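hey team, just a heads up i'm posting the complex here instead of the shared drive bc the drive is being weird again. everything in one block, sequence lines first with there labels, then the predicted structure for the whole assembly after. its two chains so it's a bit long, scroll down
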Amino acid sequence: MTDFTFKPFSEMTEADYAAIGFRSGLEIHQQLLTAKKLFCRCPAGRYSEKYDAEILRHMRPTLSELGEYDGTALMEFKTKKDIIYQIHRETVCTYEMDDTPPFELNEEALDIALEIAMLYDCNMVDEIHIARKQYLDGSIPTGFQRTTIVGVDGHIPYRDRKINIVQLGLEEDACREVSDIGHRRTYRTDRLGMPLIETVTAPDMRTPQEVSDVANRLRWLVRSTGRVRTGIGAARQDVNVSVTGGTRVEIKGVSRIPSIPMLTYSEAMRQWNLLRLRDDLHRRGITPETFSARYDNVTRLLRKTRYQPIHNAINSGMILQCVTLVGFRDLLHWKTQTDTWFSREISDRIRVIACLTTLPNMIHSDSTADTIAASEWQAIKKAVGAGDDDTIVIVWGDQRDAETGAKEVIIRAREATIGIPSETRQALRDGTNGFERILPGPDRMYPDTDMPPKKITTERLDRIRNLLPEPYYERESWYRTLDIPTDVITPLSISSYAELFKTAVKQWNLDPVALSVALIQYPKRLCREFRHLDVTGILKESAMNEIVDAFRDGSIRREGILVVMRSVLENGGFSPNILPQPCTDAELNRIIENAMIALETMAFKDGDQKLRKLKGLVMDPLRGRVDSRMVMEKVERLVSGGRS
Amino acid sequence: MNSQNTYKGYRGEVLAVLRSYRAQVWSDAEIHTNRGIFKGIILPRSETADPHHVVLKLRSGYNIGIAARNIRNIVIGGHREAHYKIPEKEFPYDPKKVSVKLLGTGGTIASRLDYRTGAVIPAFTPGELYGSVPELADICNLETEKLYGVFSENMGPEQWMGTARAIGREIEKGVHGIVIGHGTDTMHHTAAILSFMVQNPPVPIVMVGSQRSSDRPSSDAALNLMHSVKTAAESSIAEVMVCMFGPTSDLYGLLHRGTRVRKMHSSYRSTFRTIGDIPLAMVSREKITPLRHDTNCRRKDRKVTINTAFEEKVSIVYYYPNMKPDIIDSLIDNGYRGIVIAGTGLGHVNKPLYPTLKRARDKNIAVYMTVQTLWGYVQMYVYDTGRDMMELGVVPTANMLPEVAYVKLGWTLGQTRDPDEVKKIMLTPIAGEITEREPSNGYLILQGGIPEVEEFISKLWK
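-- predicted structure starts here --
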């Protein structure tokens, strides 16, 4: 079954992905554009490196509502980390520090979440219940995230089919990690508590490209509300991947959609290769039942080694544990991802769980080059009784960490005989991924006893439904028939000007090309020109409405739109006196006369150059106020008249 | 399963709908509604929630509520009942370790979800405690006894007396230290009364609770429990103490004298503070660091005086401007035997109250003055008004905290009605409730925002 061999990324076809049973789903976290946080009244979206105080906490696993401990929770507890929170008083209050119970849910955030759930055509929940989702990594000081489901079972169209939306949740954002070294993990708390929606799709995507297509589609759809945050870190994807016979593995926190295809390809390859590894183990007769491993303290044997990492470790009083994996010869050098081997899976685990964060954190007998001397390998193998078919792995750390590390090597090696462990993994820059933690299950949910359930009334849903934007992909299809520039199609379809554009084109018969350029490209250009200004804020819908109105009734011409936008920015907003006054004949004649006088003092190669200069001098003060063709003709007439 | 359990928490409209489709609590159900189909397990509903919604646990672990009137059909697929239970492991016995007794009165030191109220209720056996805080076994051999299972606001004279007697029994049996699990709201009331009811104990008596319930990963319960058990097992201080977080960080706990401690914040972990003095000691998982040396020392004997007298007809009156005499009159008319006033400033009330205070004195009602500033002494000689009040029989109580004066007056009146005798007991310090002097660092409330305070805080974990 696993005889398919992975090809390079660029050579994989849809049929290849079908052959391995590639399946992928997304969990998209998108920050909402609210002034305040979700459960307290701290400002949202204010980031700073500065902090005034630090708090130290530890996390302990607790039972779920159904009376079970969660696997991740127990794993995190094994790591015994000191968690440090950096507190900046302007962005964090005693709520985020878990020293004050939650305040009422931010209604604005709830409205946005409901709106987006409707865009997905979800079944809307009648009464929302706040849950606590446990996170023992410390990323939230309470040890859990307050989260609630507002809609389930929605969908969006994609190609000729539907991508199902399992649920839409409203939740609070977590801390940003500053560092994680040894037994100390540090977090910055400014982002903590900001409102966020989590969109969970079904595993309906069948190729890596489809995953990024759908991610984009969902991103545009939520942006079309104009009520979500944009910019670095405002939207983050978790990507779930599995292959036939594999396990759902989650790649966390992917902020760039273009990196998704390579990441999902690598993960599919990793799972496929781990399945092949399992088959190989079974052929060797190594199953979960027959699996055998042990560990011994070998510190004494390497006291004189010249291999620097171990030499240093011993000098600083560390302990060396040697794990013997019976029958594993060569398997730690089994390829899992591009330029990555099974040994990495083990090294990652002990880095995270035993806190052996200084790399290299292990060496093994399947890859002995540039490690301890051959004679040292021999001596250790002999001492621990390892045979030719066995692999030995050496880890080092203080008494407790070295032992945790050795045990974890055994746990991960045994898992290879079963298949692919359920994990969350972190995306790496080269497109591969590394272990982050054990995948949490539904067992980490607990009702939030601090918050009563909240009823979502029909009146509320109706109010929101009435203001729902048209799905952006329907707008896009219409735009394509209008021949507007392709690069403005998506931006316009999700822009707050989309309704204005529709009215202007359908009811007022304005030119769609000119209008789409004016609505999308001009503000973009002006953003670069007025870097210090909040361009989109000043050119809000109402201001744009006025400008388009003026264009419609002819008080500004096509060329004048940009000029007026610039004036609006300089003025700090729209006011009618910004609009140019129509040019009278007398004014036009005076300008031409002045230009002719100015021309006298200049020298020109020929008449054409002179004419061009004249046209420029006349048009500069008039641009946008007059019909340029009419003026040009008049100038030409004058000039030719003068000649004759 | 009886019908109460079958439909736990459901009533009215929603109960009728569930019954009509033969759906029960723990049914694995597919609910068809006007807003779509929802699949999951039907959970019990909190009794305080409305009678219009079904609670459903979705496959993802999330709960949602479904309006009964939107339900069109319920298809039952199975039954999956939750057994919420803190894993119980037998607490290991080590003959080399001392024995500590943990008396439970309630609180959230160990707790679980209560579907009836949707809140948390305590769970409390040595096995459960060991299951959730195995570190305790490194400190001592622990035995537990659940005296009560009440929230702290429901603690009263009956529970105080019962707890004092239980402490007496344990001391006679030769226990090495006692820990009392207690809700935090009235922990300082109980700490004060136990300081009077249990006199001259030979071992530490440590009260402990948690500000974040133990069903939360960030709970302070486990660390507080470790600190208090360590104190009971190893400390040389044989007094009634409160052991709770010093800073909000997971760093160390403070041991506060039972008569000088007060809960000072509604939700902070570091809510307990010694008022008008400094704490007895700091305790971390590694060591106990004494901060003062005038504490009662641990003894080898098993002698203790238990005096559980208590007169319940005692009240605290928190004075406010424009208070009318009818407040005091109603206490007099309702047969109260003692009144503690929390007065303004140095211990004052307005003039219109004087006649009723005189009436109280004439009816042999004990009236004692404390200060609502909490810090500082009552001083009724400074102003004429104070002198007038003393004339009317109001007795100043030095720097006794209002709540402490309240429980002490109840305890005193439980022993005697004779005004002179009452006054003698009230004004004779028994367990540090009145101190002769207030050290300058007994009043230290750092003012945030000031540069030197900010600088100091930024260097420390809070």
